[in-house]
Design a protein that fits this description.
The chain is of the alpha+beta class and 395 residues long. It is 36% helix and 20% strand. The chain is elongated and about 80 Å long.
Length: 395
Amino acid sequence: MSKLDKLIKDVNVEWKTLGEVATIFGGLTGKSKADFENGNSKYVSYKNIFYNIEVDFEILDNVTVLSNENQHEVHYGDVLFTGSSEIAEESGMSSSVTTRFNEKVYLNSFSFGLRFNSDVEIVPEFSKYLFRSHFMRKEIAKTASGVTRFNVSKERFRKLQIPIPPLEIQQKIVAILDTFTELTAELTAELTAELTARKKQYNYYREKLLTFDENKVEWKSLGEVTEVNTGQKPSVIFEKPKCFDYINAGTTRSGYCEISNCQGDVVTTPSRGQGGIGFVGYQPNPFWLGPLCYIIKSLNQSILLNKFLFYYLQYDYNLILGLKKEGGVPAVNKSDLIKVLIPIPSLKEQERIVSILDKFDTLTTSISEGLPKEIALRKQQYEYYRNMLLTFPKP
């Protein structure tokens, strides 16, 4: 931290508006759908800009450009921006051209480019970090306006101020952030590989633990050992968090309620709907059960644990998915659901299985524990240092 503070402290930084130091050029014009089918030239797409901090020249798209057309070409050192988005915060996403190339490359028509004047010294690699920094993203978002779609105002965009530190400082910042980027990518790759390995391990043990010999364990239908019911629509559904989740036909909560109609420690599965049939959820806390969802609850937990029931139904996905009735809105009939057969091992064995699978589930899917949180923390750490290095005092 002390070294980073020393690097940016007392640096002679010029602040200039983009209109003073650069010109803006547009993307392709006068193109039809046919021009993008079998093109003779390359262009940078909207997605290439949006998802990459620097243009990926391995995924350029094709477009037909005739020799007599007056189209703007992309040059080394340019910074490309998306022109619009559905939300203001994602408008004007940037991608710098840090690769030198020989062929003609053009820009998507829904984007625009920024080209620095010849007397302005800005390292392309520095610009890729600068325009993705927190403070620049915040300022760029302010230049967008709209209702259903937000478009960047070029007039407001030109008035944005950027810091221009000496070249030596730019290069040092780039070296530090490149190292951070590389280390973060390596660590994220390692953690992701570890998470993938844990998931494979989890699936292996889950299959071992939940595969039963038909002749060595008692089998019962859901109708014999569980209560199966649907709920009703609440009088008020809230979008913002309230006391209780509203669980209806889907793989996630459908909203929130101030009161509940079901106790926790139960299994839920959608009764009808387009995307959720076959999904099995577990509700640990009291919630509101909707009309398009089944609750499956053990009649006697000294015989069948609800958590064991959840793991088994979740593991054998086709048990419920195979009951889906097509035609109109897909649905699962209660009369079919209660006929599903499940194994009933001893209570002690159920407790052992649940204990093992709970630990694996926490390690692989919990947002507050295990590897996913570690991956998120490493990304936050990188963003923190990036923003600190690019925050210069403004006169």
